[in-house]
Structure formats: structure tokens, C-alpha cells
Amino acid sequence: MTSINVLIADDEPNQLELVRFNLEQADFSVITAEDGEQAVILAQELTPDIILLDWMMPNMSGIDVCRKLRSKSSTREIPIIMLSARGEEGDRILGLDVGADDYISKPFSPVELIARIKAVLRRTRPSLANAVIEYGNLRLYPAQKLVERDGRQIHLGPKEFQILSLLIERPGQVFSRAQLLDNVWGHGVYIEDRTVDVHIGRLRKALQESLDGKNLPDLIRTVRNSGYALHLPSVR
Amino acid sequence: MTSINVLIADDEPNQLELVRFNLEQADFSVITAEDGEQAVILAQELTPDIILLDWMMPNMSGIDVCRKLRSKSSTREIPIIMLSARGEEGDRILGLDVGADDYISKPFSPVELIARIKAVLRRTRPSLANAVIEYGNLRLYPAQKLVERDGRQIHLGPKEFQILSLLIERPGQVFSRAQLLDNVWGHGVYIEDRTVDVHIGRLRKALQESLDGKNLPDLIRTVRNSGYALHLPSVR
DNA sequence: ATTACTATGTCATATCATAGTCATATTTCA
DNA sequence: TGAAATATGACTATGATATGACATAGTAAT
Q: Residue B173 CA to C17 C1' — how many Å?
């Protein structure tokens, strides 16, 4: 569950299996789709961490899939890399224009592919790419599952860690309880909304603890009727 | 409740369902009307965020509906996109002339439709598109449910935030108490007119607070017998 | 297996923020 | 000036959020 989920859509089974093999070697979890429609459905159903789209597919081309994914809020944030047989500059531009994050022309080496995937993830979802994320005096090490505040290490349970990972990727943004449940627990999990409050409470407490008895300022903002957000304590 | 409400009026059930399907896929909330009269009634009743009008309908044509909506204050501000089978330039001009915000000729792709809707909304209701809105020294971040004045963060209750969101979209424009009640509380809510005054008072107070004891200039103009408007203090 | 921990989800309860109303003060303008 | 409109402070009910306690399940070490 800790590995990165990749959805690949390509109508050519050989190509599909080749990529799958290479990515699985590199410790990615791979899901495959044989055409565009399936890709859209799977993307919504499973919210992978990144999507690789073949440019030309029956049913719905990579471009159409890309547009469609970008138009739905549930899939809008998922980074997309377009794969194409043609290496024309026009396509590249069209692809990026339609909302893709990167564009690779075939043939490509497994090494290149993996490098590109990591590059895109580093840019869009730093915590997945194991890049250290900083925000204010907070520092989060995704690979080590470790958090520091003012250089002091903080112990968090797995759930609290995931919540913080999500919040810190988009500081300031308000996440609803539903969003948190979807992203941290996974969709389709039946858990009380209120449980989120409890975990937020635990996260808060952990982040506030300091050597002296006094608490550090709270880094989580409660937004009534909406949810929670990470924020820098502002000047009062 | 956060999604965008679209009212579609078309006499062809197939067309209606097609559009409904596509829009719902893209996370819009859809209401449908089968003729012009119904469209006008629903528009008033539900104040959707945007209206799609078929050009030719029994009972009342799209043009007539458009005129009618533009003539009533409760619906005047709702953006309208006309849909038409004919692609003649004359119609386009007539449509825009009558007060439509955009004009799409059939057949159109779902992608195009959605793009147009978003474009119109971005133009007319920036906060729905999640863009940061600035006005004078005020800055409103819809996604973060946050307001700043002179860079200083301001705490607002949900109601006050919504009121300000509405006002800031059309700075200077006077909103009646009825309009505010409709937009912020929702239609059909039975609340005293005077309650609006109280919330405006709270909003005023929150916006005026500053570090030193002194108050910042008032940003809300009271228009006797009419309502309230956001304004820059310099403009008298 | 047993034990000792840790993490998790739920609940009941405590706390708190906000919404709405009213009474009263103040302003506006005819 | 007087009537009407608006501003404001106080109060209460409500609903949202915070929190402590608990049962359970998993994990690690013995």
C-alpha cells in the first residue's frame, strides 16, 4: 500500500505488458486499461497516483481521456504523462495544452520512463517522490515517515502521518472530512466523519508538543462547516 | 453543495439527457426544463449558477426566455449560454444582443460545452472557478476560505464569508436584503430581513479591525432603501 | 502462546462558535 | 421634528467541533 500506483492505458497488449514489467521491477503498483473509456473509469474508481496515456487508442484517444480526466474534480489533480509514437513537436504542445504534465515519445527506455515519472511526481506530489517537504518550521521526510518541527523529531501514528502528508502538499487549502477520508483511508471505506476530528486532534497535539510544558502554536486551522487546513500561525 | 448548478432548457428530451449526462460527469449539478416557461420559473425559483437555453422551443423561444430573465432583477445576473442548431452569424449576433453571454451552435462536443461554461463562469463569477479575487486591499481565497486585508488574515464566520464572496464578485453593486438572503441562505428560507443587517454589521466589524485600536475605513456602503455594496473607501 | 505496546475507531461528554432575534440606540431624510 | 430605516449590543438555541476514555485489533518481543 505504500508503493506508487500507476495506471497505464494502451491498446497494444505487448506494449502494455512491457511497461508493466518495467514499472513493477521498479516497485510501482501497476493497473492497466486497454482503451480510453476503461482508463477513465479506472482512474475514477481507483484514483492512481499517476496515469500514463497512449496517444492513440480506440474508443477514446489519449487526448480525449486527458480532457475528460481534467474536467472531473475527482481526477483533476492526478498527473498525466502522454506516450506517443510520433515525435512531432505539434503533438507535444497539444498534449501539454490539454493538461498533460509531460510527454514522452516512443520508443523510450525503461530508465527514461521511470525518471520522467519520478520527475513529474516530484513536481506535483512531492510526498510520493520521497522528496523532503518543508513548510514553515515543519519538515516531512516521506521515505523515512518522519516529521520534524524546529528540528525536533515528532512521533506520529501512520494515519496522522498520512493526513499531514496530504495537508502539507497544499498548505492553506481546506480539506473536507470527505476528502480526507478518501485520500487517507481510501474511498469506499465506511468510517465516521467524526473519526477525522479525532485524528486531527491527535495530529494537532503531536505537532504542538514541546520540551517545556508549554504548547507550540497550532498549525491546523479548523474551518467551520468545511474542514481543516494546514497554516502558518499568523500575527494576531 | 459546492458544485455548480446548471439549468438546461431544451424541448428535445434526448438532447436534454445527453447534455445532462455530460455535465453530471463533469461534476455539475443539473436541473432541466422542457420549455421556455418552465425555464423562467425554475430560474427564478432556484437561481442556478448558469443557464443553457435552446434557441427554439415551444411556448417561449430561447430568445424570449433570455429577454424575460434579463428583465427581472432576481435573474438578471445569471449568465446564459444559447444553444442553436443553426450556425448563422446573424443568430449569434442576435443571441448576444439579447443578453446571452455566449452562443454555441449544435452539434457541439461535451468538451467544448464544458469549456465554454467554465469560461463564462470565470468571467462572471470568479469565485466559482476558485480563482483568488482581489479588490482594493482585500483578497479572498475561495479554496482556502480565507480573507486578507492589507495582507493581514481576517477571521470570518461562514455566513460572513459567503456574503463577502458574493459582494466582492461585483464590487460596487448594491445587493438587496432579498438578494443576499437568496444567495447566501438559499431561496425559500424564512429569515428576517433584519438578520441581514446584523451579519453585515459583523462583516463590517471584522473587516475594520486592525492591530492598533483604531478602525480601518469601512468597506461596505449602506444604500438606504436598497441594500449594501462593497466599495473602496476613496469612492464616495 | 503470552504479554506488552501501539494504533485505531467509536462513543459520550464538554466546549465553543455562530446564527438568528429582539430591544434599543442612532441615523437619515422628508 | 418625526417617522422610517439602519446600527448595534445582548441573549439564547443550536449545531459543530474538541476531547478523554474505552474496546478492539494488530505487532513485536519473549
A: 30
Query: Which residues, other chains included, contact A224 with Cβ-Cβ below 8 Å and sequence gap of 6+?
Result: B157, B158
CA distances for A86 relative to A99, A108, B224, angstroms: 18, 12, 66
Number of domains in chain A: 2
Closest nucleotide relative to residue B226's CA, C1' based: D5
**Could you tell me if B66 and B158 lie in one domain?**
no
The answer on B153 and B45 residing in a single domain is: no
Could you say which residues of chain A have pLDDT below 70?
Answer: 1-2, 86-98, 213, 234-236
* Last residue in a domain, options B94, B124, B154: B124
Nucleotide nearest to A225 (CA to C1'): D16
pTM: 0.78
Same domain for A148 and A76, yes or no, is no
Q: Which residues of B touch A173 (CB under 8 A)?
A: 143-144
Answer yes or no: do B12 and B85 share one domain: yes
Q: Does A222 touch chain B (CB under 8 A)?
A: no
Distances (CA, A) of B64 to B7, B82, B88, B98, B100: 16, 12, 19, 9, 11
Domain boundary among B124, B150, B170: B124
**Per-residue pLDDT tens digits for A24-36:** 988 898 999 999 9
